[in-house]
Every structure is written in structure tokens, then in C-alpha cells.
Design brief:
Two copies of one chain form a homodimer. Chain A is an alpha+beta fold. Chain A contains five helices and eleven strands; from the N terminus they run βαββββαββααββββα. Chain A has a single domain (16-171, 183-212), classed as Roll (Pnp Oxidase, Chain A).
Chain lengths: 220, 220
């Protein structure tokens, strides 16, 4: 079982029992997540932007965002935080104080650098498309040289990483268990609905299997 | 129709046609979202943490997080970014380049301050609990003075705010519409599952209506 090293910056101070540095736990959350929130600072003002990503070995690749513009402006590398959050449900306790949510999240701290090598960029984009929908890349037109140039991809090393997980029923104060109040969990799932064909879709093109049976899960 | 002022920091440079500064649009996204990602910097390192929130008039209240610890350390106020993202679906184009997601997001830039007044804190906590589940507060034991003290709440003014929205089918390059490739949207919804009673729930306590018919939507 491999672990990420716990650093002063990734040590959980609040609810440390919810922390995990286990590589497999982190990777399962990254595999199930669809998008991340990337945080970076400009002139002392933090920005948090949602974007898609993929994980390849010890690197996280993030699809072009405002952070890329920053990287180009300052050159070199930029400290970022990438957070992936999976909401699993609401936790309804008998007291306001003990209300909570069940969730799994990963926080990655590191230096972002722009990917400039076209091969690495193409590999990252393929991973990003297939991360969102397995097997999709094989069906679509690949990026032209011009499109590749117009797309920005940033890389963050998977080094300083922590996961945080809450599961299970509410934990109430001992004296509250007698209260006349319903308590429990309301699980929430991200559920695919009926696919909607592009109004301009040519006749006779069937919905692919991967879109028919789409689901997110930790396995990869 | 009221608007947030567009500032140099909230002006969308990429895909400006997706931007909105309309107060009603922003408020509908804040009402539907369940949690936010709050970003702040410590010694030049950004952190992005998921947490719950509520919106009251021109203020956003955020439930205690690492940011509160920061606020106590530095005192005064702390520049933050609060982002709420609703994922609505995957957009499958005929080219890798034009793949996208349908989403609605709000980005709030501002100075966070800690709420110290007990009345304001209690009002904010009630709003946070009822934001997650309408009518819940009335059923639960309210925070004791000690619990109130142990909970941190931070306030961010709703002043520098923008929304970003993508809806609809993929937009492909003209020459790609003839490709033999399925294209369209796969809508995704956050769907409540069967509620799970706390194993320690006393007998004879019925599931409340608000947990039975739970759903998120923009109206409030």
C-alpha cells in the first residue's frame, strides 16, 4: 500500500480522522470525479475555476483555464491548489451543530507548469476526453495542429496530496438521541439522464454504448 | 432587472458570451447549489476547500473551514474567491476540440471577515441549514452557546460577482457535421436516493416530508 507523504500543508487540523494519504484512495476519487476546481492567486486575489482534468501516473493534467493565461504572463510555474469533490449525501443530525455531508475530496498542492510539448499535450487531451467518457477519443476527429496550439493544458505533479472522506450516519451528542427528530442520511447520486441527440445529427448514427450505459465510478 | 457591476477582475476573457452579471441569474445558481469551493492563499500557496454556504441579501455566509483559522491568525479580512458550480451535462462534439460541458457557475471575489456577533452567526447558521434542506432548522435542537462558539462562520459581500453558463448542443466546426460520429448532450442530474434512517433512530419517528420529496432547484 503506497502513501503520499503527509506534509505540514496537507495535514488535516480539523477532523484529522477523516484524512487519508493512501494512493489508492486518492486515485479512486480522481477517477470518479468529472471536474476539479483549480485555485491560483493573481496580485493577492485568489481565483477558483472549475475545469476538467485527467490523471496520468504521477501527474494531473488540467484543461486550459484562466490559470494558463497567468502562466503565460508570468512564465515558469505558478502555485496552485486542485480540489476534486464528490458529494455523496446529506447527513441529518438531531442538532443543527452535528449536521454534515458525506463526501470524498482530494486536495492537490503544487506548482503548475504549462505543457508545451505537442506529444505530451495530445496524450493529456486524449486522457482528459477519455476520463470524461471512456472510449470517446477513438470516435472523434483528433485536434488539428492549429487546435492543439489553441488549447492550453497545465500539469501539476501528484506529490503533495491528501484525501478527506466522511461516510455513515450522523453522530449526535449523547443526550440528543432521545429527541423526537428524524435523523439519517439522504444519499445523492449524479445520475445520467436520457441522451439528447444534436439537432444537426445526421440520420442513421446510433448512440454509442458508452453513452447509453454511462456511469461514474471509482474503478478505471 | 438588476446587475452586478462587471469589474476588470470579473470580466470574462474566454468565451465572454457565456458571462452573466444579472442578479437573478446569480441568485438562482446560489439557491440551487449545495456547496461551494472557497479559495484563499497562505504564504503564496492557494487552498481550495469545499464547504456549505447560504446567501442572505447582499452577503454570502460560509460554514467554518480552514479559512476561519486563517482569519483568526491574521485578523481583519482575507481575500477569497467563492465558486459555486452546477454540472448539467456532458457535451459530446464530433471533434475532440469542441467537447465541452453544460454548467452554471458563480464566482464571487471579495474580502472574507469572520462573523463574531452571536445573533448574526445564529441567523447565518439557520440560513445554512435551511439552504441545504428547507424547513430542517425548525425540527432540530438549536446550537448551545458553547456550540455556537465552536462553529466558525465567515461572511463575504456579494459585490464582485459573475456567472458563467453553457447550455445546449455541441457547436462543431462546419466541415465536421458530416462525420459519422454521434453528437449530442448527456444531461446529468444530482438525484436524491432512498433516505437511510440512522441505525439509532428511535422507533415511531416518521421521515419528514421535506426529506421525502427532496430536490434542488433554482427557485427559492
Amino acid at each position: 500500500m503506497s502513501h503520499f507523504e503527509r506534509t505540514e500543508r496537507t495535514r488535516l487540523r480539523r477532523m484529522p480522522e477523516r484524512a487519508s494519504y493512501d494512493t489508492a484512495v486518492v486515485e479512486a476519487i480522481l477517477a470518479e470525479g468529472l471536474y476539479c476546481h483549480v485555485g491560483f492567486s493573481v496580485d493577492g486575489q485568489p481565483y477558483v475555476i472549475p475545469t476538467i482534468y485527467a490523471h496520468i501516473e504521477d501527474r494531473l493534467y488540467i484543461h486550459g483555464s484562466a490559470a494558463s493565461r497567468m502562466l503565460r504572463t508570468i512564465g515558469g510555474s505558478l502555485p496552485v491548489c486542485v480540489t476534486v469533490t464528490l458529494l455523496d449525501g446529506l447527513v441529518l443530525a438531531r442538532s443543527a451543530f452535528h449536521h454534515s455531508m458525506n463526501y470524498r475530496s482530494v486536495v492537490i498542492l503544487g506548482q503548475a507548469t504549462e505543457v508545451t510539448d505537442p506529444d505530451e499535450k495530445l496524450t493529456a487531451l486524449k486522457a482528459i476526453v477519455d476520463h470524461v467518457m471512456t472510449e470517446r477519443w477513438a470516435d472523434v476527429r483528433e485536434p488539428s495542429a492549429q487546435e492543439l496550439k489553441a488549447t492550453s493544458v497545465i500539469r501539476v505533479p501528484l506529490e503533495e496530496v491528501s484525501a478527506k472522506i466522511r461516510t455513515g450516519p450522523p453522530v449526535d451528542a449523547e443526550e440528543d438521541y432521545q429527541l423526537n427528530c428524524w435523523a439519517g442520511e439522504l444519499p445523492l447520486h449524479l445520475v445520467p439522464q436520457q441522451p439528447v441527440a444534436d439537432p444537426q445529427l445526421r440520420a442513421g448514427i446510433a448512440l454509442p454504448e458508452y453513452a447509453k450505459d454511462y456511469q461514474r465510478s471509482g474503478e478505471k
